[in-house]
Amino acid sequence: MMTQDEIADVIRKVLAGNAPEFSRLVREFGLPVRSFIHARVRNAADAEDLAQESFIAAFRGLTKFDTGQSFEAWLIGIARHRILGHFRASERRYNTHLKFREECLVRITHELHQIEEESGQEVLKRLMDCVEKLPIRLRQVIRARLRGEDGSQTATLLNATRGAIYMLQLRANSHLKECMMKGAI
Q: How open is the CA angle 108-113-117, to the nearest 5 degrees?
């Protein structure tokens, strides 16, 4: 564990132009900062990005650090601000996604009514039958998308990667298209 004097010495070296010395601070405080972030942000990739951003912000703001204070507490404060920004941005993305979803539902509802008027309920019934004939994982992916879940939520639900969910969606869509064209899977 580095002492306050050692931390102050590393900071002086970094501020004097020896930027690689900062890596000593990253090694020393990486685990507590990452742990703090991971405890609050459940997505591992987001948490790692936030840890990286926190250390970059600390490096850039090193002149503002008071060497009489706890460097770890200062880093945790930076991480806390990064986490808050992350959640604000996530909320904005979520709200945008909801608005987009509502607009899609309005458009789809209109199109479904149009299809229903043109061909009766038979096409919709056939589509629902095709969904029910899908293998269970493909059906789960389709139902999750119909509920408006994004790839991350579906990946968590099905214990899979986002890439795997994307591939399952492609397979499900292909099966549904084939079923609708032929009448069976």
A: 145
- Whole-number Å distance between alpha carbons of 120 and 113: 9
Token pair 């000593």 is at which residue?
24
Answer for the pair 180, 130: CB distance below 8 angstroms, yes or no: yes
Single-letter amino acid code for the residue at 4: Q
SS3 assignment for 135-185: CHHHHHHHHHHHCCCCHHHHHHHHCCCHHHHHHHHHHHHHHHHHHHHHCCC
Residue pointed to by tokens 């405080």: 29
Residue of higher predicted confidence among 90 and 71? 71
Task: Quote the pLDDT of residue 22.
Answer: 96
Domains and CATH numbers, the chain: 4-89 (1.10.1740.10), 121-185 (1.10.10.10)
Structure tokens at 131: 């969904």
Is the Cβ–Cβ distance between 106 and 123 less than 8 Å? no
**119 band by pLDDT with thresholds 50, 70 and 90:** low
**Selection from 40, 16, 14 nearest residue 26 by Cα:** 14
Token pair recorded at residue 166 = 């994307």
